[in-house]
Design brief:
Number of helices: 7
Order of helices and strands: HHHHEEEEEEEEHEEEHEH
Number of strands: 12
Strand content: 5-15%
Strand order of the largest sheet: 3-4-5-6-7-8-9-10-11-12
Shape: flat
Length: about 375
């Protein structure tokens, strides 16, 4: 019995040790391990993404573009190099001093590059242009170039796009990528429409689309142009003021003259920042009373041929220059239509500038008919 008792005693010892071992072993939750691993992986991807963004913003990309341009130039013939120099307002990539256009702009730039091309002898853009994505301004006027290339989306530093008198029938949707664009001039082209993507250019401050002929509407997406101050849509076929324009809260200058307006929207006072409004050469018969709510209005130009009603505020207030023009067309047979339009615009510009410093409205304009096409 004693031996049996020893056996039992010896068997109970390892059992007790096993119990202690089981208590001491820590138990891990696999979900916690997985969360720890995923957290580390997420932080690694974030660091990797920041590094990629840093490299993208670094000067390496621009240096590579400049070298690509130099390599392309070395392959050109001497005559081709000379022709290319005519395209650019610089020599050997010389940098030009920046003349800031907006003193309130917090962004400071020390240098700028400008691309210029003028004259109907040009029928295509130089292939090397696509590598010059550091350019700040494009000025392409009066050429035979059929359209703006889609690679313009890579010119993210572009501030000014001046492409008047080229006969363009459309703008590329890629123009919406130009998030730093400040000025767009598409005057005297043949545009059939304006792309909705232009509404993505939220820093746009000046938009001119004079004399495109077939424009009748603007996309509603242009309401996003909250910084737009100057809008010229004269000499088109707009039958009413587009809704998107009524949402442009910063607009101070608005020209919709020489269109097909027969009335103005009752909520035109939504454009509360307006200072100068040009409505002449339309078919307006009255001015809505809501226009009297435009407290910042300084100048109003209208056609008085059919106008029979106008808020008394515009007549009695000496701070508002009310200019009522009478349309007395003269016969112009040999003069080019575009030149005629230029003369009209130039006359109006000179005339209006002569009124800027006057304290009161010029009363004679309400009595004398101007014998020119206005």
């Amino acid at each position: 019995m004693s031996s049996y008792g020893l056996v039992c005693s010896s068997a109970s010892v390892p059992i007790m040790r096993m119990d202690r071992i089981r208590v001491d072993i820590p138990v891990y939750d696999l979900s916690l391990i997985r969360q720890l691993w995923e957290g580390r992986e997420k932080k690694f991807k974030q660091r990797q993404k920041k590094e990629e963004e840093r490299l993208e913003k670094s000067a390496l990309a621009k240096v590579n573009q400049q070298w690509q341009y130099r390599i392309a130039c070395r392959k050109l013939k001497s005559t081709e190099v000379t022709a290319l120099q005519c395209y650019l307002e610089r020599s050997n990539l010389a940098e030009l001093d920046l003349q800031p256009t907006d003193n309130k702009d917090s962004e400071t730039e020390d240098k700028r590059f400008i691309f210029e091309m003028t004259g109907d002898k040009w029928r295509k853009l130089p292939e090397e242009l696509q590598f010059m994505t550091y350019l700040r301004e494009w000025h392409i006027r009066g050429t035979k170039i059929p359209e703006i290339p889609t690679y313009i989306e890579t010119f993210v530093d572009l501030r000014v796009l001046d492409v008047q008198r080229n006969g363009f029938t459309k703008l590329p949707v890629e123009i919406g990528k130009l998030i730093n664009l400040r000025e767009l001039n598409v005057n005297y082209n043949k545009l059939l429409s304006i792309p909705a993507e232009l509404g993505d250019c939220e820093n746009l401050e000046r938009l001119e689309m004079t004399a495109n002929g077939s424009l009748t509407e603007l996309p509603f997406e242009l309401r996003n142009l909250k910084k737009l101050k100057h809008l010229d849509m004269s000499e088109n076929k707009f039958g009413s003021i587009p809704i998107c324009v009524l949402r442009m809260e910063s607009l101070t200058f608005f020209d919709i003259s020489n269109n097909r307006l027969q009335d103005l929207p009752e909520d035109i006072d939504r454009m509360e920042a307006l200072e100068s409004v040009f409505l002449h050469k339309n078919k307006l018969k009255y001015m809505p009373l809501s226009m009297a709510n435009l407290i910042h209005l300084k100048m109003l130009v209208v056609s008085a041929d059919e106008l029979y009603s106008i808020p008394s505020k515009f007549i009695d207030n000496p701070d508002i220059k009310l200019i009522r023009l009478y349309d007395n067309p003269v016969n112009v047979q040999d003069e080019d239509v575009n030149d005629q339009d230029d003369h009209e615009k130039e006359f109006m510009k000179t005339y209006i500038e002569s009124l800027q410093d006057r304290d009161t409205q010029p009363t004679y304009t309400t009595k004398v008919s101007l014998s020119c096409l206005l």
